[in-house]
Protein 1
Amino acid sequence: MGALSVLVTGGAGYIGSHTVVQLLKDGYKTVVVDNLGNSSEVAITRVKELVGDRANNLSFHQIDIRDKPALEQIFANTKFDAVIHFAGLKAVGESVHKPLMYFDNNIIGTITLLEVMATYGCKKLVFSSSATVYGWPKEVPCTEEFPLSAANPYGRTKLMIEDMCRDIYASDSDWKFILLRYFNPIGAHPSGHIGEDPHGTPNNLMPFIQQVAVGRQPALQVFGTDYSTKDGTGVRDYIHVVDLADGHTAALSKLSDPNIGCEVYNLGTGKGTSVLELVSAFEKASGKKIPLVKTGRRPGDAEIVYAATAKAERELNWKAKYGIEDMCRDQWNWACKNPYGYPTQETN
Ligand code: NAD
Ligand code: UD1
């Protein structure tokens, strides 16, 4: 049997680029489609540099997944064994102000992709869902059976797409879906060659800490110091992006299990870390002092969120390997080598 072919939507982005490295290392033929709306083609160049000869198995097309004829052309040229679907907008605050933009990009984009997949007989999908679908969980750890809710339009797109996948599977059991609920991905490839490159001011904690450390922001605002947690700050399940990438290759292998239908898995470490603990670990890894400004809670934030990991361990045979120190070390390595993210053009 020849190498399996995988289409990766959003593969130039943060999680996508790390996953593409793993796919190429594992011998998959990989086609990336991305509109580069929140990413840079330099990420693709860097991925190629990281994988040596395997770069021959990677091709990139700058297209929007809502462009059906362009997507059909990609499927007409390659018979895909599966699709990993990262492409989407992900800024919670922006989604509150521009819900239609989020519904158009995330929902219409996914419907277009699923329609083209059906037309070309490719019915295996791994989808990037989020722990955001647990809302403010009534207890922790969050198991996959917890009730689901959406606190904002971004979260609603994740929930709607999950529901769409469940309905499609109910209508046609030839489909196989794996819905991966990511907790909080941070860190970067240990080479420092690829990492997260948010456009504008970051909303998430780790990219903000990084920008303070390299002098792009004066101080970190700590959103809430009165939570019922060990030090009063919010607790999250941070997961190394390389572990997350490995979770995707594990999910792809699971798609060839004849018994799989539409399944959900948490991808987290099962450990909770507070804002102050993460800051302190980052200070240790970087040798930089992160000035803090303690402010009120951010609206919509949950108190404590971390994953139950047993289902992924048991059924995907996958478990996160890296700890907070590794995540901070690799984040800092990426930050030192790329303090302003990817250059607009690769010069070397
Ligand atoms: P990212 O923005 O770095 O990557 C998403 C990629 O999709 C970008 O390269 C962007 O240009 C591309 N894209 C967006 N809309 C597109 C479209 N219509 N057509 C083609 N390409 C398009 O984000 P990421 O952090 O790598 O996240 C990947 C996925 O994982 C997203 O769906 C996100 O919602 C989900 N997710 C991310 C996190 C997180 O904290 N990073 C947590 C949970 C879930
Ligand atoms: C946020 C999103 C969530 C999304 C997730 C991953 C909100 C309300 N939720 O979750 O939908 O799935 O990102 O992309 O935006 N913090 C600070 N200062 C900062 C930034 C964050 O103190 O400048 C705190 C937050 O209050 C929280 C923790 O750091 O306690 C983590 O925040 P963040 O990285 O934004 O992730 P989530 O809140 O988990």
Protein 2
Amino acid sequence: MNVLILGSGGREHALAWKLAGSSRITRLFIGPGNAGTAMIGTNLDVDPENFQSVREAVIKNNIGMVVVGPEAPLVAGLQDFFSKDELLRNIFFIGPSASAARLEGSKDFAKNFLTRHKIPTAAFRTFDRSNAELARSFIETLTPPYVIKADGLAAGKGVRIVDDIDTAEEELKSLLAGKFGEAGKKVVIEQYLKGIELSVFIITDGVSYKLLPEAKDYKRVGEGDTGPNTGGMGAVSPVPFARGEFMEKVKTRIIEPTLKGLREDGIEYKGFIFFGLMNSGGDPYVIEYNARLGDPESEVVLPRIKSDLYDLLEGVVKGDLSSRKIEIDDQCVTTVMLVSGGYPGNYAKGKIISGLDEVKDSIVFHAGTKTAGSDIVTSGGRVIAVSSSGKTMNEALGKSYKNAARINFEGVYYRKDIGFDL
Ligand code: AMP
Ligand code: GLY
């Protein structure tokens, strides 16, 4: 079987690395990929959001399975495009339809889904231009800080948390006035949940599911969780509090009602679901759903899966996931993300990366890199994730940090306190 992974970040390199270990795969392609994926598979010049370019690549390379990394092509309907095309219909496709991907693509849809199916989440209300004047009276029913979210995809920048009512109202108005274009036509305002976040992942064939290792991601750019949000500066798995009674609550109050809710709503879901959860006083609440794996969570989750990932993905498509086994490694895995100076604001690209060959005892997952002649250069804000395993989180972190220090490029920055709160 030839497999095509769509995307170009650390998550896709981790997927490629994991799938490359499967004896069931003949050739592995990544579209468009990065300098790291080029070392273990063949990069294709494909834009995942340009469905025709995906179609051509699939047909030309005799692809039998497509695994979608990022959310945008799913929300835009790539799965639906495949299911309607004579030549693509029977290709194994890992990722939900546009209708199912609304769990990520529309916060308003997700919040209504959660409420309808009685899944714990923060109190909320959605506003648009027709009812914005009611926002103040709703906000007054909440206690600060207030959480204001653009409804649609806004590349991780659509959420603001503010302390006073006037700023909350201003933010609502600026979103409705088009700060994020279409994504902000509707705005969700919700109650702030206090607690500690974690990311829980499953794969599902629509009926049964397998729980993947959970992870904790560090989203803020600065140490001690300060400064602006990023795509993620590092991650650890397992998360010490995600066991026993807490995980039972996650299964019975969140995962199972979500799958049941999808079925009741007539929505078929095949692929990964990423539950962004808050542990608030020992009880899990859904902050958000994503229709994909996380990044950098994948760089710690996938190394802990011992089973053949291709076999599990085949179960997703064939609908017999319940008969397949998943084995999880009980080692700790950590990742530290090396980013370009200035990220998540403006940053330079094209900086030569050195020291990659000196890494020992860690896996280097490329995020924003590309090859330029004989060099590997930076091509994004998040550049390299250094993943390591150990008996304890601190042992794994020690390896990640030792190797992170060996890699260099102009302006390189990373947080030195991943795992600090666990
Ligand atoms: P989202 O894109 O919905 O995941 O929101 C981005 C980040 O904002 C989350 O990872 C949380 O850190 C924070 N956040 C979102 N909603 C809430 C909430 N209701 N209470 C507290 N923090 C939140
Ligand atoms: N690291 C968070 C995400 O992938 O959305």
